[in-house]
Amino acid sequence: MRIIVLNGPNLNFLGIREVGVYGTSGYEELVSSIKEKAEKMGIQVDVYQRNSEGELIDLIQQAYHEKAEGIIINPGAYTHYSYALHDALASVSMPKVEVHLSNIHKREAFRHVSVTAPACDGQIAGLGFLGYQLAMEAIMEHYEKRD
Ligand code: DQA
């Protein structure tokens, strides 16, 4: 079983950007925690970070062509306005979970809306790195229950 994890703009700046919101752990630590969890679960995971919308869309389409069994996506600020990412996610039918490190619902009003979450099966927000691990478990659970 293979899952694709997509991180959007500025997530490569974890540990540098707004540490009061996102914490002091860096992007590489996030990637290591995802890979460690995947190894424990016995699943394959490919983790990508892209700052541009088009490249994130290309990776969603690539996940379809490669028959990935699930997508975990943190679209960063694109969450709040990218209909193009919404449409890309809506185009593919594998399980999809949107993850946010911070609790977007208790931040600025513009972050309360996610235009991408309606194209996903679920959303996890506010649990930091743990959110990605819980998303992996959710996709695994779905995979094990498939026909
Ligand atoms: C974020 C929340 C977004 O509002 C923000 O633009 C990000 C990170 C999060 O993980 O909490 O870049 O997606």
Question: How does this structure look, described?
Answer:
There is one protein chain. The longest helix is centred in the first third of the chain and has 15 residues, at 27-41. It is built from 5 helices and 5 strands; from the N terminus they run βααβαβαββα. Strands 2-1-3-4-5 form a 5-stranded parallel sheet, sandwiched between helices. The chain is α/β, with parallel strands linked by helices and 147 residues long. The chain has a single domain (2-146), classed as Dehydroquinase, class II (Rossmann fold, 3-Layer(aba) Sandwich), CATH 3.40.50. The protein binds 1,3,4-trihydroxy-5-OXO-cyclohexanecarboxylic acid. Residues 10, 74, 76-77, 79, 100-102, 104, 111 line the site of 1,3,4-trihydroxy-5-OXO-cyclohexanecarboxylic acid.
